[in-house]
């Protein structure tokens, strides 16, 4: 079975093949490399194919004895037919590519049911936002002026800067006096009555993360206020 497939391929193409090339071409028909090599050698042994060795590479091709040589006109005609076939193949490939693009585009378009669900969700969100806006306009919430916001931000930043300054000052003093003190720092602080951020549930890093955007916003808006 493998010999027939290999012979049909090599003779049909009438061109040299190596073992891996035959195996690749006939892989879909279950012919593996070892089977392709056995079939090629068997066909060489019975005279159906010819083998030429080029170093470690072995090439197999049909025996050309007895074949009539083509005239220049016949060669030109076959070359023209080949070019036409290649052009037709390119056109078919382009058509297939275009169809794949259309299929991909069609797959990305929402179905009618999906569009209805999306519209319903957007309508629901719109109603929720409208309710919040109505509550604000109706006096249900206290509106803060821009000046009030700026004052609150400034006060927050001042308090945070003071907190950071106190931390630095304490750490500087503590590093100087704690050289000979034994025991874990946390236990020593507790014994001395020092209230750390952790002890009172204060989140310095969280406060810092909140302060940074406010500081950047003020820096960006400073030129606009002049």
TrEMBL record:
It holds the Pfam family WHD_TBPIP. The keyword Mitochondrion does not apply. GO terms for cellular component: condensed nuclear chromosome; DNA recombinase auxiliary factor complex. Residues 2-61 form the Homologous-pairing protein 2 winged helix domain. One of its GO terms (biological process) is meiotic joint molecule formation. It comes from the Eukaryota. The keyword Nucleus applies. It is found in: Nucleus. Belongs to the HOP2 family. This is Homologous-pairing protein 2 winged helix domain-containing protein. It comes from Chlorella vulgaris. The lineage of its organism: Eukaryota, Viridiplantae, Chlorophyta, core chlorophytes, Trebouxiophyceae.
């Amino acid at each position: 079975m493998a010999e027939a497939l290999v012979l049909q391929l090599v003779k049909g193409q009438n061109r040299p093949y190596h073992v891996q090339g035959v195996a690749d071409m006939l892989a879909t028909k279950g012919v593996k490399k070892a089977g392709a090599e056995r079939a090629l050698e068997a066909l060489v042994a019975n005279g159906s194919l010819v083998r030429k060795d080029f170093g470690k590479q072995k090439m197999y091709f049909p025996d050309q004895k007895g074949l009539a040589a083509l005239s220049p006109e016949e060669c030109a005609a076959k070359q023209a037919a080949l070019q036409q076939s290649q052009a037709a193949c390119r056109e078919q490939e382009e058509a297939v590519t275009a169809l794949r693009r259309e299929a991909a585009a069609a797959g990305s378009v929402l179905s009618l049911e999906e569009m209805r669900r999306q519209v319903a969700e957007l309508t629901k969100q719109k109603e929720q936002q409208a309710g919040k806006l109505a509550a604000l306009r109706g006096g249900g919430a206290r509106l803060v002026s821009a000046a009030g916001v700026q004052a609150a931000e400034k006060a927050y930043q001042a308090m945070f800067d003071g907190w950071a300054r106190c931390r630095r000052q304490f750490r500087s003093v503590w590093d100087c006096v704690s050289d000979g003190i034994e025991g874990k720092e946390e236990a020593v602080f507790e014994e001395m009555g020092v209230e750390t951020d952790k002890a009172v549930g204060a989140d310095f890093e969280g406060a810092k993360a909140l302060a940074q955007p406010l500081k950047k916003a003020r820096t960006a808006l400073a030129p606009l206020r002049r």
